[in-house]
Here is the input.
Amino acid sequence: MKRHCVRCFLLALSLVLLPGCWDRTEINDVAFVVSSAVDLEPDGKVRITVMVPLPGQMGGATGGGGGTGGEKSYYLDSEVGSTFREAQARLQERMSRRMFFGHRRTLIVGEEVTKKGIRDLFDSSARNSENRMSSYLIATKGKAYDLLLSAPKFERFPSEVIRELSKAGNVIDMNMKDVGVALSAPGSDPVMVYMVSKDSEKSEKKSKEIEVRGYVQFKKDKMIGTLENEEAQGFSWLRNESIKTMVSISSGQTQGGVGIRIQETRTKIRPTIQNQKLHFNIHLKAKAVLLEDEMHLDLSQPRNAEKIERMLNDYMKNAMNKVIEKCKKNHVDSAQFGTYVWRSFPDEWKKDYVQEWPQAMIDAEFHITVDSKLIETGLIYQNVTKESNKK
Here is the structure.
């Protein structure tokens, strides 16, 4: 009996060592930041803008967020400072809840910040464990907070639209970590997804939507140019990113053109050194689906399907050549050709190329071959209203 009492006493004594909830944080004391924006003011100071959901406005079937017609279910606030951290600290001073960045999935960077340099972002963000390097880093034209001021119809928060567009499958999926690796990797310059706000067209009630414009090119950590439309498509193929994208190809004649969806791509880049000059052999294989045919071809005939494949080959080759020429013009290596040289010829890279890169890329010769295959033409071979020649 005495031994049993001693055991009970020791068990009760051990409860004193349990920490309990002495440092608990109630959810009502936290402001969850779902997106933030970074801008540069005319006087050189940094402006931080945060988007925080308002729990009291998020209930009910009618919603009210974004452009749905009711009161917005989120709150935007902004502050300036000499550094990122100072601006954030000054913003925190007038908020009754502590800002929590663990749920932030998008970080928008304004045009002036990208031109000045984005390297400092990877110091202030990476030092705080709440900031996730898997967040999408987005560049925009003008001010970054203007993108957060958009009022899209389909989603409650503009940040949700930005996140969904970033991973929709028709744009390269790149996050903050990918941009940081490109900044530090040999023989490469980073790129960022480029988004802008745009007013809706032909709508009874106007809204401010968000669209993907392409990619922003950087020379080291400073913005140097953009890749849009056909160049953006060619860039994704050079980066061996199999994204689904739609292309419209004109025949150059009066009979119109075709609309094609690129279903799958695979790119191989092999560098060689001939007479102390770099050569890049680029081979692209693609699978495509026909969406529209204004040339009114009978695709039951193999020669007509082959004609469309040749048109697609020329289109994809021309798009990649445009990207290469723009990289040469801007003296940047957005497609990371230097990384291929570094991996294939590490000794030659250290000896001959690393110091003056991308000059060797500018002087290099590129040989592009494209092999596309039309794997589907839809439910019909030709327009169902086309008159038959049979009598």
The longest helix spans residues 302-330. The two ends are 111 Å apart (CA to CA). Residues 61-70 have pLDDT under 50 and may be disordered.
